[in-house]
């Protein structure tokens, strides 16, 4: 996989896991009050269902667990230089504004003018918050772990 695609995969994962308020605040902070470029919808935010697949024990055969609500959006920035990057967003839930913000961030991250600034001020802090929350939940779950062992009776 080429490095650009790998980077995009990582920032898309961060954008998909970030709540709307945090995404809005981080995007505003990263742009330093600069006005967002105009855009046109290729696919306006819409809500639908996606099938969730699972595996028993993480290793068994896959099965359909059920459906979840997802919101998706696709937009194209209108730029003066004619580059017109396309931003895409898909996340679980029913928040159209969140999908719009994530699609805008995705498109802006593809532009050299914004890429470095947004990577350091938007993606890296949000990724750190997600990692901290994941670690907190793992520690909380580990605290409830019960160790079972078998005692061998002496003869």
Compact overview of the structure:
This is Phosphonate metabolism PhnG protein. With 155 residues, the protein is α+β, with helices and mostly antiparallel strands. The protein has one domain (3-143).
Task: Give an overview in words.
The chain is an alpha+beta fold. It has one domain (3-143). It has four helices and three strands. The protein has a three-stranded antiparallel sheet with strand order 1-2-3. Strand 1 and strand 2 form a beta hairpin. Helix 1 runs antiparallel to helix 3 (96-109), helix 1 (3-17) crosses helix 4 (112-143) and helix 2 (20-31) runs antiparallel to helix 4. It is elongated. The model has no long low-confidence stretch (mean pLDDT 88).
Number of folding domains?
1
What coarse outline follows from CA principal-axis ratios?
elongated
Report the order of strands and helices.
HHEEEHH
Kindly state the percentage of residues in helix. Answer: 40-55%
State the major sheet: 3 strands, antiparallel
Beta-strand percent range: 25-35%
Within the largest sheet, what's the order of strands?
A: 1-2-3
Our count of helices gives 4
State the distance separating the first and last CA atoms: 61 Å
GO biological process, one term: organic phosphonate metabolic process
Protein name: Phosphonate metabolism PhnG protein
InterPro entries: Phosphonate_metab_PhnG
Pfam families: PhnG
List its traits.
alpha+beta; three-stranded antiparallel β-sheet; 4 helices; Phosphonate_metab_PhnG; Phosphonate metabolism PhnG protein
